[in-house]
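Q: How would the structure tokens look for this protein?
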Amino acid sequence: MHLYGLFVLYKEPSTGKPTVLKSATDLSSFSFLYRKHVGEFMSFTSRLLAERTETPSRNCTTEKEYKLMCFVRPDSLAAVCVTDQEYENRVGFVCLSKVLDEFSNAVPAAKWPQIHKEDECNFSKLNELLTKWQNPREADALTRVQDEVEETKVVLHNTMASVLERGEKLDDLIQASENLSAQSKQFYTQARKMNKCCNYV
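A: Here is the predicted structure in token form.
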């Protein structure tokens, strides 16, 4: 997963025209000769997507191997991220929400319409946020938990597979176990029968 750019924009309520207030990009994966053009294209498509996204709402679009996600709040503040196709939508929108929260806490809403160039905007944290969200597992607690659950499932699956590879069947192991009570063994047997019945329905 790769996050190429973050853009914070303000949509003029009367016209719907967005202005880029601040941006941060990571173009290191592109050839040095093309970085300027790629950055300009990202800025253009971010403005276009923000303009065509209703206020308030979220929008996601793809272009070849890239994905653009846009979040426009009711106060006309918007954020766009440019990622690769592997970047999860849920994580992208959490990132945009955090970016907008950080920005609105640092820059008063009364100043948004007055900013016409990025160097007029006093918000230096966007590059830090871009770096942080390069690895969603570190930035987003839910992603971290989901990854840990997936890793646990793989370990459990591999453990069960290795036990069964030795020619032992789970049913035989349960029947032979001295640690399970007769009721537990009976419960397991009945549950297996019920599952077989459900599969036929």
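Helices lie at 35-52, 89-106, 126-132, 136-139, 141-165, 170-176, 182-200.

The chain has two domains: 3-134, 145-200.

Upvote if useful.
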